[in-house]
Specification:
31 strands; mainly beta; 5 helices; single chain
C-alpha cells in the first residue's frame, strides 16, 4: 500500500465525525460481518451441529467496501468481487455427509491463506429439517487492485522499497497479475509476476516471475532474476500426495551496504576492499510428497535438484589477485556446482487455534499448536568432474502452547555438511534457537517477548549478520553492528487499538537488546515508542512507525532513530528456523 493511498484512506475518516459510542471490541469487525452474513440468508447459528447431516453450503460474499464502511461505495466499481465458485471449490465438506467441525475450521484456514479476503468466517447454521444443518461461508474481499508496498525506511534513507502494481484477484478468479519495481541503494529492477493457484480449475499451481536489474548510477543492465514453479500442493490435511518442479535463476552485481554506504572491508595488507561481487545462480529440481495420518501428520518428500552457484569480484574492480583471493576466501558465499538427491520428513500435530490481537488487529490469526518437526538429508555425488561431493543434514523443531490466551513458542534448528572425497571436512555448521511469548490480554493489549540466538560456525553461504535500525535493534544506526553470530531480544507492550470508523490504531512501548558478534556478545540496549495502524479492507497486517533511543552506545542523528515499515519486528528472524537446509 503506498503512502498516497494511505492519505486517501484516512481522508474519509477525518471528514466524518462519528457519534460517540462505546469502545469496539477487538473482534467487532468480524462479528458485524457474521451478523450481515446470517441476515443475507435469513439463517440462525446452529449451536449443536455435530452428528447432523449437511444439507447445503451457503455463501455470503461481501464487497470490499460494505455499506457500513466509511469509504465511498463507488470503489467497488474498480474491484471484481471473488466469484462464488472460487469460494465453493475450497470448501472441504460435501452436502449429504455428516457435519465435521474440523473440516469447517480447515476450510476457513485455507480460504484465509489465499490472501484475497480481509475476513473469513465459516459457521454452521440451522438446516431446513430438524436433523439437518447447513454450512455458511462468509467472506469479505480485501482490496485487490493496489500499489502494494514493502519498504525499510531509516530516517530519510530508503534502504529498500518494493512497489508492486497488483491485481491480486484478477476478475474475481483468485489469479494474481503484477508489475514489480524494486529500489535498492545501488540498483533498480523492473519485472512481472503471474500466479494461478488453480490451473484450469484443477489443484495444480502455476507461478512465474521475472525481473530485469539496472544499475542506478550507470543505468545499464546488470542482470536478471526469475522463477518458474509448477506444483500440486497438499491443499488439505487429507490430501495423500503432492508434487513440485521449479527453475530459478539470479544473475546480478551484489553490493553489501552497511548503513548508507557500500561496506568497506578492512583488508589486512592495504586499503579497504569494497564488499561488491558478481552473483550467478541457476537451479532446477523436482520433488514428490506422500502424506500420512490425520491428526498426527507425517509428510515424506523425495526429490532431485541441480544447481550452479558462482560468486566472484567484478572483473572491472580495481583489485589485485591477492585482494580477490582474500575477498573470496573470507567474505563471499561459497561457489560450487552440484546435483543432489534429497529426502525430508515433516511431522506435526493438526491442531489449530484462532487468535486476535497478536500480530494484527481485529482479524483472525491461525496458529498451529503442538509439535512441528522437519528433518532433511541430502547427498551430492561427484556426477561430473567439477561437481561438489558432500552429504548434509538439517533439522528444525518447534513446539507451541496455548494456555489461557497466552501463546508460547519454542523453536530450534541446526545444519551440518560433510565434504566427501579429497580434503573431506565438516562445514556449514550452524544452529539457532528462539523463544517467543505472547501474554494474555492486559488492559486490552498484550505483552510480547522474543529472544533469538543464531550461531554461525562456518556457514558457506550466509557469512555475516548485520544488526541495527529496522532489522531488530530500533534506535541504532542502520547496520551499525556486524558479526557471524546474532543475539537479539525484543520486548513490546502492544496496546488495544482505538477504532475510528474501521481504522484500527494502537501504540507500542518497546525494549530491544542485541549484539552481532564473532566471539562474545556485547549487548546494546534501546527503548522506544511506536504506532501501529491497520485498514482491514486493504491490509491484513499493520504498518509500524517506531522511534528508539540507544541507552549504552553512540546515538545516531534523530532522523535515523525512526523506522517505518510493514509487519511486526518479530518477522526478523533466522531463516534456518523454518528451512534448515538452504
Amino acid at each position: 500500500m503506498s503512502l498516497a493511498l494511505l492519505t486517501l484512506l484516512v481522508a474519509p475518516l477525518m471528514a466524518t465525525a462519528p457519534e460517540p459510542e462505546a469502545p469496539t471490541p477487538a473482534a467487532g469487525y468480524e462479528e458485524s460481518l457474521l451478523a450481515w452474513g446470517l441476515a443475507q440468508h435469513g439463517s440462525e447459528l446452529e449451536r449443536s451441529p455435530e452428528g447432523k447431516r449437511l444439507e447445503a453450503v451457503l455463501v455470503a460474499a461481501e464487497d470490499v467496501v460494505a455499506q457500513s464502511d466509511p469509504y465511498p461505495n463507488i470503489l467497488n466499481v474498480f474491484h471484481v468481487r471473488t466469484r462464488e465458485e472460487v469460494i465453493r471449490r475450497e470448501v472441504l465438506l460435501e452436502p449429504g455427509a455428516l457435519y465435521s467441525p474440523a473440516l469447517a475450521e480447515e476450510t476457513a484456514r485455507n480460504l484465509r491463506k489465499l490472501n484475497i479476503f480481509a475476513v473469513v468466517r465459516v459457521v454452521p447454521v440451522k438446516g431446513q429439517t430438524p436433523g439437518g444443518v447447513a454450512l455458511l461461508v462468509i467472506t469479505k474481499d480485501i482490496w485487490s487492485l493496489r500499489l502494494s508496498q514493502d519498504f525499510e525506511l531509516v530516517g530519510s534513507f530508503v534502504r529498500y522499497l518494493r512497489l508492486q502494481g497488483t491485481e491480486a484477484n484478477f476478475l474475481g478468479l483468485n489469479q494474481r497479475l503484477a508489475l514489480d519495481f524494486l529500489l535498492r541503494p545501488d540498483t533498480l529492477s523492473f519485472g512481472q509476476t503471474y500466479i494461478n493457484r488453480r490451473v484450469g480449475g484443477s489443484r495444480w499451481y502455476l507461478g512465474e516471475t521475472a525481473s530485469l536489474i539496472l544499475g542506478r548510477e550507470s543505468g545499464k543492465p546488470e542482470g536478471s532474476r526469475g522463477t518458474l514453479v509448477l506444483q500440486r500442493p497438499l491443499y488439505s490435511l487429507s490430501t495423500p500426495w503432492g508434487a513440485s518442479t521449479s527453475v530459478t535463476w539470479n544473475t546480478a552485481t551484489t553490493r553489501v551496504f552497511r548503513g548508507t554506504e557500500v561496506w568497506q572491508l578492512p583488508y589486512p595488507d592495504g586499503e579497504p576492499v569494497p564488499f561488491i561481487y558478481v552473483t550467478s545462480e541457476v537451479s532446477g529440481g523436482a520433488s514428490y510428497t506422500r502424506s500420512y495420518g490425520e491428526y498426527y501428520k507425517v509428510n515424506v518428500t523425495g526429490g532431485v535438484e541441480a544447481y550452479h552457484r558462482e560468486y566472484a569480484a567484478p572483473a572491472a574492480a580495481p583489485l589485485d589477485d591477492a585482494q580477490r583471493e582474500w575477498l573470496k576466501e573470507n567474505h563471499l558465499p561459497h561457489s560450487e556446482d552440484a546435483t543432489y538427491a534429497s529426502l525430508s520428513l515433516s511431522a506435526f500435530e493438526a491442531r489449530y487455534e484462532v487468535m486476535r490481537g497478536v500480530d494484527t488487529y481485529a482479524l483472525s490469526e491461525d496458529y498451529q499448536i503442538g509439535h512441528y518437526v522437519v528433518a532433511s538429508l541430502r547427498y551430492a555425488p561427484p556426477a561430473f568432474p567439477s561437481a561438489a561431493h558432500y552429504a548434509e543434514a538439517g533439522a528444525a523443531v518447534r513446539y507451541r502452547w496455548l494456555y489461557a490466551d497466552a501463546l508460547t513458542t519454542v523453536s530450534a534448528a541446526g545444519a551440518i555438511r560433510r565434504a566427501l572425497g579429497t580434503g573431506s571436512q565438516w562445514t556449514n555448521r550452524r544452529w539457532a534457537a528462539e523463544i517467543h511469548q505472547v501474554s494474555p490480554k492486559v488492559l486490552g493489549g498484550r505483552f510480547m517477548a522474543r529472544g533469538v540466538l543464531d550461531v554461525n560456525i562456518d556457514d558457506l553461504f550466509d557469512r555475516i549478520e548485520l544488526l541495527g535500525g529496522a532489522n531488530g535493534l530500533r534506535g541504532a544506526r542502520q547496520d551499525a553492528y556486524s558479526g557471524k553470530r546474532l543475539l537479539l531480544v525484543n520486548v513490546e507492550y502492544r496496546t488495544a487499538p482505538v477504532v475510528f470508523q474501521t481504522l484500527h490504531m494502537g501504540g507500542v512501548l518497546f525494549y530491544d537488546a542485541g549484539s552481532a558478534f564473532d566471539r562474545r556478545p556485547k549487548m546494546v540496549h534501546s527503548v522506544g515508542v511506536g504506532i501501529r495502524f491497520l485498514f482491514p479492507q486493504f491490509n491484513v497486517y499493520p504498518f509500524r512507525l517506531d522511534f528508539g533511543y540507544v541507552l549504552n552506545d553512540t546515538l545516531p542523528p534523530v532522523g535515523q532513530r525512526f523506522t517505518f515499515s510493514g509487519g511486526q519486528i518479530t518477522e526478523y528472524r533466522p531463516s534456518i528456523l523454518d528451512t534448515p537446509l538452504r
